[in-house]
Amino acid sequence: MKQPDSVTPASRSPRSTPSNRSRCRRRSTSSRTSRSSLSFQTRLARNTSCVVLDDTIAVNIEKPKTKEEEDKLVNGFLSGLEKLMSVDDNWTFLQPFEMSMEHCAKCHTCSDACPIYEESGENELYRPVYRSEIIRRIYFKYIKKVSPAVHGDIDLNWETVARLIELSYRCNVCRRCAQTCPIGVDNALLSREIRKIASMEMGIVPKELHEDGSVLQLSRWVRPPG
Ligand code: SF4
Ligand code: SF4
């Protein structure tokens, strides 16, 4: 199995699934057939202002325009991760989050239970522990300051953070993985908490979900129709 030593995207594209058909926008297939010698991902990354993992985009994450903007976003991510590990800021989810961050036997039982991973043709990007392993490495190296020799190394930069956020939206948070994990790790919770950092600390959220979901529901809740 390919381990996420870096957040390098897999070369294989996922098959269209009910989940990504409804939530993700496929990029134009015409650019795929270009005669350019550059890879599809390289051409796409150069032609768009957003972060690209493969030919699917779940979150339109725009690239920062300056180094200062980039540093601010990365620091916001790290600060958000610190808050998730704090009783004051995250007392409701701290215990299961910490347990899920610190323990994984890498048995991959959860992969067999994940409908997205299965429907993608076992694309590594969709393996439940793929995204979890990235945030774990960031956590151990940059929050707990444990030697990378113990839990694996990773560089914390804008590209890593942006790809991790994109990966968190390649999960439908169904929690089938959590139900089958023999030690109770909740990979869905990790996806959800990554989204929480992106939304609350970095202002990154899929426009459609925010405007047609959260905002709409909140406005109806505040002012019930009729
Ligand atoms: S089933 Fe649980 S312990 Fe096994 S790889 Fe998945 S999260 Fe880790
Ligand atoms: S919650 Fe778990 S099983 Fe469901 S899509 Fe996400 S990783 Fe897969």
Q: How far do the termini sit from each other?
A: 55 Å
- How helical, in percent, are the residues? 40-55%
Task: Examine the secondary-structure arrangement and name the CATH architecture of the domain at 71-209.
Answer: Orthogonal Bundle
Round the mean pLDDT to the nearest integer and report it: 80
Count the strands?
2
Write the layout of secondary structure elements.
Blueprint: H1 18-23, E1 25-26, H2 40-47, E2 56-57, H3 67-84, H4 87-90, H5 94-102, H6 109-113, H7 115-119, H8 128-143, H9 148-151, H10 158-168, H11 176-180, H12 187-202, H13 207-222
Antiparallel strand pairs: 1-2
Helix pairs in contact: 3-12, 5-12, 8-12, 10-12
Structure, explained:
The chain is mainly alpha-helical. It has a domain at 71-209: Fumarate Reductase Iron-sulfur Protein, Chain B, domain 2, CATH 1.10.1060. It is 54% helix and 2% strand. It contains 13 helices and two strands, in the order H-E-H-E-H-H-H-H-H-H-H-H-H-H-H. A two-stranded antiparallel sheet has the order 1-2. The chain is globular, with a radius of gyration of 18 Å. The structure holds iron/sulfur cluster (2 copies). One iron/sulfur cluster (SF4) is lined by residues 104-110, 128-129, 181, 183, 185, 187.
Structural key phrases:
globular; two-stranded antiparallel ribbon; Fumarate Reductase Iron-sulfur Protein, Chain B, domain 2; mainly alpha; binds iron/sulfur cluster; 226 residues
Q: What's the quick description here?
A:
Helices cover 54% and strands 2% of the residues.
